[in-house]
Every structure is written in C-alpha cells, then in structure tokens.
Design brief:
Number of strands of chain A: 9
Number of helices of chain B: 2
Largest sheet of chain A: 5 strands, antiparallel
Helix content of chain B: 10-25%
Distance between the termini of chain B: 32 Å
Number of domains of chain A: 1
Number of strands of chain B: 5
Oligomer: heterodimer
CATH class of chain A: Alpha Beta
Family (chain A): Belongs to the MoaE family.
Catalytic activity (chain A): 2 [molybdopterin-synthase sulfur-carrier protein]-C-terminal-Gly-aminoethanethioate + cyclic pyranopterin phosphate + H2O = molybdopterin + 2 [molybdopterin-synthase sulfur-carrier protein]-C-terminal Gly-Gly + 2 H(+)
Subunit structure (chain A): Heterotetramer of 2 MoaD subunits and 2 MoaE subunits. Also stable as homodimer. The enzyme changes between these two forms during catalysis.
EC number (chain A): 2.8.1.12
Largest sheet of chain B: 5 strands, mixed
Protein name (chain A): Molybdopterin synthase catalytic subunit
Strand content of chain B: 15-25%
Order of helices and strands of chain B: EHEHEEE
Structural class of chain A: alpha+beta
Shape of chain A: elongated
Largest interface: A-B, 29 and 20 residues
Strand order of the largest sheet of chain B: 2-1-5-3-4
CATH superfamily of chain A: Molybdopterin biosynthesis MoaE subunit
Shape of chain B: globular
Number of helices of chain A: 3
Radius of gyration of chain B: 12 Å
CATH topology of chain A: Aldehyde Oxidoreductase, domain 3
Chain lengths: 135, 79
C-alpha cells in the first residue's frame, strides 16, 4: 500500500501488513514534534508534488523488495496541515523473520526522507521555516 | 515553457508556476539552473536545487523537452 492521504490511519496500515507467511511486522510512525532548534512549534504544513512523490515511493519500495524478502509493504505520507502529535508518515514491512523487517523498514523511511518530493513548513511563534531548505 | 514550483521555490518566485520568458529556452538543466539563480538569487542560497522532468530527477546535462512537465525540487523534508 503506497499512498498520500489527508490523515494517517494506523489501523489500516497495520491491516495492510498482514500476511500468513509473515513472522514479523515492523512499523515506523513519524509524528509532529512540538519543538525544533530549541523553539516551540505550533503546527506543520506538508506540501507534496503528488505524482512524482508516488513515483519515488514506488521506486523505493521496489528497491526494498529487491533487497529483502518482503511479504507486505506500506508507505503512507500525510499532506496538509498537521497538529502536534499527529502521525505524518507510516512505513512498514512484513517479513518471515524480524531482522529483515527492521532493516527494510528503516531503509524505507531513510530513503523517503532523501528523495521523495514532500516539503515541511514549521510554524514557530515568530516565524515560519521550510525545513532543511538552507544549509 | 511552464515550470511547476513547490515549497520555498514557490515562495521565492511568488507563484505556483513560472513561465520561462527565454527565447530560445535554456538548452539543458544546467543552463536552466544558471538562469534561475541569476533571475532569483535566493535560489543560490538553498541547500540544493533539483529539476524534475516528467516526474523524474534530471541530471545537469538533460535537455529540457518542450512538452515535458518540468518542476523545481527544492530540498525535500518529508517524513
């Protein structure tokens, strides 16, 4: 299951990872943190270049499936306005044994953060910042 | 040629779309990036600036096809 949504449904992601041959399911959930650079964050906005983001997510999933014997795979990212504590991304894999589940799940989120065209804007008391934009 | 803009790139230009006023248009990605940084110096201050042609990252030597969908990809920050 690979998609972009308004709201993350963790139960749906978990259900999509069910497989009779899977002995391990690994799930990573990224959520909105209430601080960055020592300052309070009120909310976040996520913007995506949707067709390209989906294409990149599919390509990452394919690379993961080439490396690990994955039975089920989930990559879901939320777009739009998010509040503190909201889940914004969920990635997960189901495999026969736990090592492959942990490793492939980490690969999915690490690669997603590198190449998928999604942008996060942080709202502080006194300013807004596009995360990671400047060195 | 219309260019799609996202995130900080949209804010730098002040619009979700940029129409390239150049005639002839830039011959490749590298030329196009040079023109962007000259026209909007704030692009030079970004950590990175990538160009996507038809939803794929394009290297500097890629020629910009006139009917392709072209987008500016400022540093990503999903997850």
């Amino acid at each position: 299951m690979i998609k972009l949504v308004d709201r993350i449904d963790l139960n749906e992601a978990y259900q999509a990872l069910q497989h009779p041959e899977a002995g391990g399911i690994s799930i990573f959930v990224g959520s909105v943190r209430n601080h960055a650079h020592g300052k309070g964050v009120h909310r976040l906005d996520f913007e995506g270049y949707e067709p390209m983001a989906l294409k990149e997510m599919e390509a990452i999933a394919e690379r993961a499936q080439d490396r690990w014997p994955i039975k089920q795979l989930v990559m879901v990212h939320a777009l739009g306005q998010m509040a503190i504590g909201d889940p914004v991304v969920v990635v997960g894999t189901a495999t026969a044994h736990r090592d492959a589940a942990f490793e492939s799940c980490k690969f999915l989120i690490d690669e997603l953060k590198k190449t998928v065209p999604i942008w996060k804007k942080e709202y502080f008391d006194d300013q807004t910042v596009w995360v990671n934009a400047h060195p | 040629m219309k260019i799609k803009l996202f995130g900080i790139a949209r804010e730098i230009v002040g619009s979700a779309e940029l129409i390239l006023p150049l005639d002839p248009p830039p011959k490749n990605v590298k030329d196009f990036k040079r023109w962007l940084c000259e026209s909007y110096p704030e692009f030079s201050e970004l950590r990175s600036l990538a160009i996507a042609v038809d939803h794929e990252y394009a290297d500097d030597d890629v020629i910009l096809p006139p009917n392709a969908e072209i987008a500016l990809i400022p540093p990503v920050s999903g997850g």
